[in-house]
C-alpha cells in the first residue's frame, strides 16, 4: 500500500483529522539507519507523527521536530517538506535500555529523564519560526500532542502505531491526529486507541472511520508521502567549504581526504585530497 496522508473535517464543523500510512517510508528509514528496536520504534513514531502535524500549519514549506532528552537515545528528529518528502535521524541509533522497555509504549525510557520538544517551521517569505515545550513522557506522539496544546493552544489527540517485522528491517506504521476547531468544547475531542489498534487497516479512510467512529467525516485532501533526503555531493561539498582552508588542509594532510555520512539518510560521501584542494582553490 502506497504511503499517504488524508485530511478530513467533521460535517458538523467541530473537528478536523489527519490520518497517515507510513509503512514504506519508515521501512526505508530503518534499512538505512539499522537501529535497535528502541531506536526503530522511536524513529518510526517520529516520522509518522510529523507526517500528520501539518493539519494545523498553513503555508509551511518545511517542518522539523526534535525530541531531545538525557536518556540513552539522546535525540530523535523528523522533517517533512513539500510535497510530502520525509526524512529522520537518531542521535544514538543503537541505544538500548535495561528493564521495562516492551517495544510499544516505553520509548520514553530512551529519552527521559528531562527533555524538550522543539518545532521549527519554514514559512515562505517569513523565514523560520521555532517553539519548544518540556517533554512530558518521552513517547514521541504524546509529547507532540502536548506541544499542540501548550504552544498552539489547540486541543489535540495524536497517536502513532509502529509494528516491527523482519527482525526490525521493516515496519507497519500509521498515525491519527484529531483536533478541535474554533468554538468547539476542548473536552469533546475523542480519545484515540492504543498503538496496535492503528495497524491492520485497509487504508487511511478505513483507519479514520475505525478510530473515530460515529463521526460523519468529509475527506478534503489526500497526499502521497515518501522518504526523501535533500543531501547530495554538491551540498556536502558546500558544507565542507564553510569549514575554512585551515581545516580542509588538515583533512588533506592527516586523512588524505574526507568521508562524510548524512545523518538523515545514511548515504556516504567520499572526497579525495584533490577534491578538497579544489575547494581550497575555489
Describe this structure in words.
With 282 residues, this protein is of the alpha+beta class. The protein folds into two domains: 4-227, Hsp33 domain (3-Layer(bab) Sandwich), CATH 3.55.30.10; 233-281, Alpha-Beta Complex (CBS domain Like), CATH 3.90.1280.10. 28% of the residues lie in helices and 33% in strands. Strands 7-6-3-4-5-11 form a six-stranded mixed sheet, covered by helices on one side. A hairpin with a 3-residue loop joins strand 6 (115-123) and strand 7.
Q: Helix and strand layout, with pairings?
A:
Blueprint: E1 4-10, E2 15-21, H1 23-33, H2 37-52, E3 62-69, E4 75-81, E5 85-90, H3 108-111, E6 115-123, E7 127-134, H4 141-151, E8 156-165, E9 170-180, H5 204-211, E10 217-224, E11 226-227, H6 233-241, H7 245-255, E12 257-261, E13 268-272, H8 273-281
Parallel strand pairs: 5-11
Antiparallel strand pairs: 1-2, 1-10, 2-9, 3-4, 3-6, 4-5, 6-7, 8-9, 12-13
Helix pairs in contact: 1-2, 7-8
Amino acid at each position: 500500500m502506497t504511503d499517504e496522508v488524508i485530511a478530513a473535517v467533521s460535517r458538523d464543523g467541530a473537528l478536523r483529522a489527519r490520518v497517515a500510512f507510513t509503512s514504506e517510508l519508515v521501512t526505508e528509514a530503518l534499512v538505512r539507519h539499522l537501529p535497535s528496536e528502541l531506536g526503530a520504534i522511536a524513529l518510526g513514531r517520529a516520522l509518522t507523527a510529523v507526517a500528520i502535524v501539518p493539519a494545523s500549519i498553513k503555508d509551511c514549506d518545511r517542518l522539523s521536530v526534535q525530541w531531545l532528552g538525557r536518556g540513552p537515545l539522546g535525540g530523535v528528529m523528523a522533517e517533512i517538506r513539500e510535497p510530502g518528502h520525509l526524512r529522520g535521524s537518531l542521535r544514538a541509533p543503537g541505544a538500548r535500555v535495561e528493564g521495562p522497555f516492551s517495544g510499544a509504549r516505553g520509548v520514553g525510557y530512551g529519552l527521559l529523564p528531562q527533555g524538550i520538544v522543539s518545532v521549527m517551521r519554514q514559512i515562505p517569505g517569513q523565514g523560520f519560526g521555532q517553539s519548544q515545550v518540556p517533554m512530558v513522557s518521552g513517547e514521541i506522539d504524546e509529547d507532540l500532542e502536548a506541544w499542540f496544546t501548550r504552544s498552539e493552544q489547540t486541543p489535540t489527540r495524536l497517536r502513532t502505531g509502529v509494528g516491527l517485522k523482519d527482525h526490525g528491517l521493516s515496519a507497519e506504521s500509521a498515525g491519527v491526529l484529531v483536533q478541535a476547531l474554533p468554538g468547539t468544547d476542548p473536552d469533546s475531542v475523542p480519545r484515540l486507541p492504543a498503538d496496535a489498534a492503528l495497524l491492520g487497516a485497509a487504508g487511511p479512510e478505513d483507519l479514520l472511520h475505525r478510530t473515530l467512529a460515529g463521526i460523519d467525516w468529509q475527506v478534503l485532501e489526500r497526499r502521497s508521502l515518501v522518504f526523501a533526503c535533500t543531501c547530495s555531493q554538491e551540498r556536502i561539498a558546500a558544507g565542507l567549504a564553510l569549514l575554512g582552508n585551515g581545516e580542509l588542509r588538515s583533512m588533506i594532510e592527516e586523512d588524505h581526504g574526507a568521508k562524510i555520512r548524512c545523518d538523515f539518510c545514511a548515504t556516504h560521501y567520499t572526497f579525495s585530497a584533490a577534491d578538497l584542494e579544489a575547494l581550497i582553490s575555489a
